[in-house]
Amino acid sequence: MQKVFAKPEALIDTTFHFCPGCHHGTVHRLICEAIDHYQVREKTIGIPGVGCGVFLYDYIHIDVCEAPHGRAPAVATGFKRVLPQNVIFTYQGDGDLGAIGMSEVVHTANRGENITVIFVNNNVYGMTGGQMAPTTLLGQQTTTSPYGRDFQTDGYPIRMAEMLATLEGVAFACRVSLHTAAHVKKARKAVFKAFDMQLKNMGFSFVEFLSACPTNWGMNPQQSVERMEEEMMPYYPLGTFKERTAPDYL
After folding, report:
1. Is the pTM for the entire model greater than 0.90?
2. CA 58 to chain centre
3. Which of 53, 176, 202, 235 is least surrounded by Cβ atoms within 10 Å, i.e. has the fewest?
4. Which of 3.40.50.970, 3.90.1150.10, 3.30.460.20, 3.40.50.1100 would CATH assign to domain 24-243?
């Protein structure tokens, strides 16, 4: 019988600690599949920020350096400039990247640093208590917006992929979802493309994943998947917002 499915070699054989219905494990697998595909495990370095993905080293068999809250793009920039032959990616949530880390990711993208940013958008601060994040939808209840997010006091949810796509240094910016198997397959292609961009020295690449957080949403996994399609995707449309076809210096 032909073997058609196997655990990626870069994925450590361990039990995930994430909540039921969380998509972090799926993102980890897609990253590992890209690492295996391009055969770069020995030269890949992951930079997680503070959040649910902080224990990246427990799941992916690569070198990992944790960054202070929001500073993963700055740390990744340092690694890439010292080790330009290495594959460097950050792994960040919406609170880490979109709030305290907004300055770092914007300027890193604008400089066109040749790194890859993996951005998990679940509309909420996951690990630290379910507070409102920059990506929290209008009307969404969180521990710091118990009556729902109000644009008059809290502003509007930020569309990171679209915003970064406007910067000259960005080579690739897209948004994918993980709520169905078909969308996971499309997300896999996006991760492969982002790594390929870096290997070809094209510049900054960015993949935003729409993800569920059943615990902080107060839902079961099935309800969370339905919410992703009914509430998240209308505001955060899927697609590729920028894709460079050749390095700027050619």
Report:
1. yes
2. 18
3. 235
4. 3.40.50.970
